[in-house]
């Protein structure tokens, strides 16, 4: 029997997810032994027309990382969805929008203005901005459309499974591949990671007191947490209580409070508001004044509470107009 | 048991008893000076000498040191014994001609004058004019019993005396005063032993108007009416010695080793009746409380006017004379924007009571400085009317100041109350002998801590919040916790009694019913999702969530859960859910409202 074929594709992402595949190291040989890689733009040159020639079902699985912001990305993922029976959102960006999704805290106009006009290193007297179509030397050239906002993969196509993490840890990837090969997959729509939040497996959970009484929110940018005491108890916003476990506590071992890349647990509809609700009960304030002062120490609430999940949250993005164009 | 004869009387006593105690047990009096129940027999004063005949031999022995023996014949009043005692009395009188105890003792033997001279020697640094008889009780008490050892004998023969090392003020003395209180001649003057001024222990119940000992009965109506030992001032807890009280207690009821006990009770209902504390009038410096002797707080006056109080119910100034005029200043700390904004509710009426008592007991002029007269209870308005008829002066206006700076001869030596009479539109200066501050009511000390412990809500000023001001005035938001008395708000005795009875009835109703109806909308924690972050435990206002150490997850105690939903909002992983009131339901409702088909309908 021929080996099953798999496809890797990337959208709005940093490339870290691709690195995970590389991080499989010699295990990659086992993967190659078991499957044929039909598409992997980061490593080999493929064109859209190559994929268009695929028979439906010919390539069994598409691992798609990155969020979707360009019409081109949309085109690609729609095509992969058409061709592949199994589509897996790979990594935080495809899963929830990820770090690129924080762009939803501003507008397309702001981004373009900053990039093409305001930036000190840009000299653009003709006020050139990207356009979807232009004519150069009689040739019609086309650029993809830069959408108004970043979307997670499942906002544009049907997604079968999610592999969370920034990037997904190799162990989870290996487990997922194993499950696909064996056909032992959970119900469609599942996130291929444990359901409980990170506190469950956190080595510092034992040091967490019952009452935290946070008087001031601290930032890792301006101070260093003690490595052996619950970060929340120290006043650092650790997203662990609101974040799915399975990451191997990589950040915790690196003395970094959880940043929430694994996304919400299945019981939470909105990660940021859930964590905000929790923080609201953990702070210690005896008057409106001290409560406001405490709230004031929480720098960048959206970037902290929705660092990886803004496009998939209830907020989604700044200001959604009714029936607006993409 | 040993049988002996004392003054011809057959006495049976336990072996090991001294002849002195055997005689006293048989109601035969033997005079003593250096004997004390708490001290081992010493036999230095010799005044307790008796004639003892044993095995045909008669001798003179000090009865305090002689143990009883079978067949012993004791004569405590023989001619020879009396002659020697008279001589001893004369010698003591020569040493201590001014001591009351010695003069009384000498008088027993018809000695009023001594034929001997007062011995001349270097006087001890600690002994006053009364004169020391060298009985050594102070030395033995300080050394053997109190284990301090600040005093000692010094010198020999005629030069023997009691003193501190080098005759200097002692630095080991702990100012307990045992030496001077045990001294039979009152010779020891404590200011010579220590340099600092001893502080008497203020009696808390009497508002510090009188003093108490380290062992004392808290107050006359205390239940149970037994003495308690104040660990902080009792010498036993400082030196591990003393226990004199134990020696003196016939019932052997004193146990110094007794520790405070923490008793844990499983109960189904709690009645909180922690009362109140008075506003501290020291905060209002302008009224001179703590500065002027005769400016009293309401509770101090309550003690002074009480029959069992420090003055036996007589209204007296600090100098012991009755006042000619008294001012009562209402609303001290109450209805005050800077302190307690609320009305303390009881002060008007107790002030009227004070005015009535003062008029009745001293006929002094009484001036009430009031903002409004709040005589709202049953019979209260009538009482106010009666006081108007009794000639009590009422000045409508809050007193501004109490001063002793006299501006005229009639103000000299008096306390002058300055205040505006708003009915006359005049500033008044009223010279009085005594000022009573009608201090307001504050929540009891520790009220906040207890509120946290029992998850009680508080109203303005930290009084506990009832479930409903009209429909459930004794219940709280937590089932089974009831409020009674001033912990819920300032109230007078009839109201407190009524509320107490209602609270007791509420508690009894729970016990009698045998079952408790619970809220249907409680929280639950999904075991599969809970990661044990414990955030819900801290958030629960009803202490209804516990941590399962075995499973490492949190668990809702359904009996305690009131379904407030705080934990549901706090749970960051969504493991906590409110039954019949889940997030998905709310989101579905919101979506329903925002649905394009329903929105226009709702807008209409």
Task: Give a quick precis of the structure.
The complex is a heterodimer of chains A (326) and B (604). Chain A is of the alpha/beta class and 326 residues long. Chain A has helices at residues 16-23, 27-34, 48-52, 71-83, 92-96, 108-118, 170-182, 231-234, 250-253, 271-282, 288-296, 301-305, and strands spanning 5-10, 36-39, 59-65, 68-70, 86-90, 133-136, 139-142, 146-151, 161-163.
Number of domains of chain B: 5
CATH-defined superfamily of the largest domain in chain A: NADH:ubiquinone oxidoreductase-like, 20kDa subunit
Largest beta sheet of chain A, briefly? 5 strands, parallel
**β-strand number of chain A:** 9
User: What is the radius of gyration of chain A?
Assistant: 22 Å
SS summary, helix count of chain A:
12
- CATH domain class name of the largest domain in chain B: Alpha Beta
Distance between the termini of chain A: 44 Å
Distance between the termini of chain B: 108 Å
**Order of the strands making up the biggest sheet of chain B:** 2-1-5-3-4
Architecture (CATH level 2) name of the largest domain in chain A: 3-Layer(aba) Sandwich
Shape of chain A: globular
Largest sheet of chain B: 5 strands, mixed
Apparent shape of chain B: extended
CATH uppermost class of the largest domain in chain A: Alpha Beta
């Amino acid at each position: 029997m021929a080996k099953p074929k798999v496809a890797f594709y990337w959208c709005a992402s940093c490339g870290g997810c691709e690195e995970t595949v590389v991080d499989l190291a010699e295990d990659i040989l086992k993967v190659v032994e078991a499957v044929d890689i039909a598409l992997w733009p980061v490593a080999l040159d493929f064109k859209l027309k190559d994929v268009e020639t695929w028979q439906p079902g010919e390539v069994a699985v598409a691992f798609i990382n990155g969020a979707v912001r360009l019409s081109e990305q949309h085109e690609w993922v729609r095509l992969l969805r058409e061709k592949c029976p199994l589509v897996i959102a790979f990594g935080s960006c495809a899963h929830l929008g990820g770090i690129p999704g924080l762009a939803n805290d501003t507008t397309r106009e702001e981004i373009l203005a900053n990039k093409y006009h305001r930036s000190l290193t840009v000299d653009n007297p003709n006020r050139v901005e990207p356009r979807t179509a232009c004519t150069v030397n009689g040739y019609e050239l086309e650029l993809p459309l830069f959408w108004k906002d970043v979307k997670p993969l499942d906002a544009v196509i049907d997604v079968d499974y999610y592999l969370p993490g920034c990037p997904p840890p190799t162990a989870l990837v290996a487990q997922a591949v194993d499950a696909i090969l064996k056909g032992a997959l959970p119900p469609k729509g599942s996130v291929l990671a444990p359901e409980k939040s990170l506190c469950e497996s956190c080595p510092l959970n034992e040091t967490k007191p019952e009452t935290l009484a946070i008087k001031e929110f601290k930032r890792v940018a301006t101070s260093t947490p003690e490595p052996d005491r619950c970060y929340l108890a120290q006043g650092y916003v650790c997203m662990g209580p609101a974040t799915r476990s399975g990451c191997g506590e990589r950040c915790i071992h690196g003395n970094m409070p959880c940043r929430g890349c694994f996304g919400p647990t299945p019981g939470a509809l909105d990660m940021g508001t859930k964590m905000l609700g929790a923080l609201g009960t953990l702070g210690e304030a005896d008057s409106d004044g001290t409560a406001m002062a405490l709230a004031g120490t929480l720098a960048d609430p959206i970037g902290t509470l929705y660092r990886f999940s803004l496009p998939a949250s209830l907020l989604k993005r700044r200001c959604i107009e009714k029936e607006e164009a993409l | 048991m040993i049988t002996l004869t004392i003054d011809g009387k057959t006495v049976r006593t336990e072996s090991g008893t001294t002849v002195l105690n055997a005689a006293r047990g048989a109601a035969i009096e033997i005079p003593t000076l250096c004997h004390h129940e708490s001290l081992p027999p010493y036999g230095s004063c010799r005044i307790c000498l008796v004639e003892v005949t044993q095995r045909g031999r008669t001798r003179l022995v000090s009865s305090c040191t002689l143990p009883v023996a079978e067949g012993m014949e004791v004569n405590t009043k023989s001619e020879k014994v009396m002659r020697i005692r008279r001589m001893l009395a004369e010698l003591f009188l020569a040493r201590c001609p001014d001591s009351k105890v010695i003069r009384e003792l000498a008088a027993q033997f018809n000695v009023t004058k001594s034929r001997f001279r007062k011995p001349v020697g270097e006087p001890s640094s600690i002994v006053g004019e009364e004169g020391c008889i060298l009985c050594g009780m102070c030395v033995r008490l300080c050394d053997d019993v109190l284990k301090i050892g600040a005093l000692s004998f010094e010198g020999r023969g005629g030069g023997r005396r009691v003193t501190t090392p080098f005759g200097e003020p002692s630095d080991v003395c702990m100012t307990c005063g045992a030496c001077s209180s045990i001294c039979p001649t009152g010779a020891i003057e404590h200011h010579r032993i220590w340099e600092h001024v001893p502080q008497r222990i203020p009696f808390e119940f009497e508002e510090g108007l009188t003093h108490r000992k380290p062992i004392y009965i808290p107050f006359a109506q205390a239940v149970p009416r037994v003495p308690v030992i104040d660990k902080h001032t009792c010498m036993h807890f400082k030196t591990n010695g003393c226990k004199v009280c134990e020696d003196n207690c016939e019932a052997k009821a004193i146990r110094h080793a007794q520790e405070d006990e923490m008793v844990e009770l499983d109960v189904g209902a709690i009645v909180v009746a922690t009362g109140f504390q008075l506003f501290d009038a020291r905060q209002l410096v302008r009224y001179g409380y703590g500065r002027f002797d005769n400016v009293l707080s309401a509770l101090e006056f309550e003690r002074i006017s009480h029959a069992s109080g420090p003055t036996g119910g007589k209204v007296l100034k600090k100098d012991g004379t009755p006042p000619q005029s008294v001012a009562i200043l209402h609303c001290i700390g109450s209805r005050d924007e800077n302190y307690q904004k609320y009305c303390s509710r009881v002060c008007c009426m107790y002030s009227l009571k004070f005015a009535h008592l003062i008029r009745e007991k001293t006929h002094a002029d009484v001036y009430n400085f009031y903002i409004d007269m709040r005589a709202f209870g049953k019979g209260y308005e009538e009482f106010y009317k009666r006081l108007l008829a009794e000639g009590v002066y009422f000045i409508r206006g809050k007193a501004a100041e109490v001063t002793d700076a006299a501006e005229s001869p009639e103000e000299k030596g008096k306390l002058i109350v300055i205040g505006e009479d708003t009915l006359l539109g005049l500033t008044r200066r009223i010279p009085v002998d005594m000022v009573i501050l009608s201090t307001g009511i504050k929540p009891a000390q520790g009220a906040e801590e207890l509120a946290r412990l029992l998850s009680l809500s508080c109203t303005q000023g930290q009084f506990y919040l009832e479930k409903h001001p009209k429909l459930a005035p004794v219940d709280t938001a937590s089932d089974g916790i009831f409020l009674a008395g001033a912990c819920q708000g300032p109230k007078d005795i009839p109201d407190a009694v009524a509320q107490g009875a209602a609270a007791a009835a509420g508690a009894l109703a729970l016990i009698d019913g045998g079952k408790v109806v619970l809220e249907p909308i409680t929280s639950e924690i999904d075991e599969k999702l809970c990661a044990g972050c414990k955030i819900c435990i801290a958030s629960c206002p009803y202490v209804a969530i516990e941590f399962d150490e075995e499973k490492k997850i949190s668990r809702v105690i359904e009996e305690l859960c009131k379904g407030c939903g705080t934990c549901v909002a706090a749970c960051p992983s969504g493991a906590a859910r409110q039954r019949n009131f889940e997030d998905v339901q709310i989101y579905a409702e919101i979506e329903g409202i925002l649905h394009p088909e329903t929105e226009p309908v709702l807008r209409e």
